[in-house]
Amino acid sequence: MGVGRLKRSVRSLLAVSLLFGGALTAAVIGGALPASAAAVVNTIPVGSSPVGVSSDGTDVWVANYDESGTVSEIDASTGSVIQTIAVGILPDCISSDGTHVWVGNNRSDTVTEIDASTGAVAQTISPVFVPEGISSDGTNVWVADGDENTVTELDASTGAVVQTIAVGNGNEFDDAYDVSSDGTHVWVADGGGDTVTELDASTGAVVQIIAGFNVPEGVSSDGTHVWVANVGDGTDGTVTELDASTGDVVQTIAVGGDPEGISSDGTDVWVTNFDGDAVTELDASTGAVVQTIAVGKHPVGISSDGTDVWVANSHSNTVSEIDIAATPPPSPTITKFSPASGPVGTVVTIKGTNLSGATKVTFDGVKGTITKDTAREIKVKVPSGAKTGKIEVVTPGGKVKTATAFTVT
Predict the structure, then answer these.
(1) What gap in Å lies between CA 363 and CA 401, rounded to an integer?
(2) Cα(332)–Cα(355) distance, rounded to whole angstroms?
(3) Where are the beta strands (DSSP E) in 193-258?
(4) pLDDT in tens, 305-319
(5) Residue 110 counted as domain residue
(6) How many structural domains does the chain have?
(7) Which residues of 336-363 are buried (b: 16+ CB within 10 A; e: fewer)?
(8) pTM for the complete prediction?
(9) Is the Cβ–Cβ distance between 135 and 151 less than 8 Å?
(10) Does 279 lie in the same domain as 168?
(11) Domain of 359, in residue numbers
């Protein structure tokens, strides 16, 4: 889970129509959802600014990126919060192997080990400089040391430091954002140097440095494929698929704005879109985009255990639970809206189907205030700063835009 650029944003937070009323058609972003597919089934309040999440199938562990430094433990079967555990300052990455939970504390320059069976803190390992990403394969724990552009290898049975390994090309812009071990290979995303480094998991030796990425901030290996989330400039986000046996690039897939976190369960690949408040699902066998699922505000970390996908929504202070086998909510449609123009403060009536539960309505990207929300009708005030443009409605079933623009007078 690469959160380098997001964390800079969170740190700042911590410091502080042509047819008037006529029938209009609109399309759901990404097309219609399949009849049976993944869907959000639960939204769970956790600590402040959750950015890291890891599920071992029994429990879900959430790193809350704030000064108080906590981890939330969630029961994976019920979605209820079991306990909150104090760790270091600004915990931003987390990995559970089912026996131990490993937490990288960015400001403390430490790694906290938690007993997965009790939630008790077993030890604090220091120094591990500016941990940005962490991955345990049960034998070793691999920590991406952001500012140092190194990877620290820990012995998972003792927590002892085994070695520190230089990654990337060694230039001043290198920054190890994320790491993923499949037990055979260890893959390190260097967001500053636009590279991915492959390590031999048995020795820690550098196998190769692969260039040509576009601000890679997240990486996930399922043993067959390696999936790399490229943030780019924030609007042109992609995922690069690598062959895990060779490191060769298989393909690059467009996934929308600001992909921050990524998790592959071998069947599907799940990508958080930070600016889109959504998760993109890819088919792991083909790389094809399956669907886009609306979640909370500014999702970052993501973890799939093969049954559910867990998403850390950094600005909602929640975790979204996505049931991989659930039937999704129906896609929203818009049939008309009125009036077709008006000044800031105008109440616009949007009519259609499956509109209930709307989380956001925007006018050319500027969020309005919803005053009424039913399955067939939404009323929303035109916000200050709105510009002439299409109206977009976001519901649990997807996103939909008007076919024509609302004119701000």
Answers:
(1) 10
(2) 5
(3) 195-200, 206-211, 216-221, 225-230, 238-243, 249-254
(4) 999 999 999 999 999
(5) yes
(6) 2
(7) bbbebbeeeebebebbbebbbebbbbbb
(8) 0.77
(9) no
(10) yes
(11) 333-408
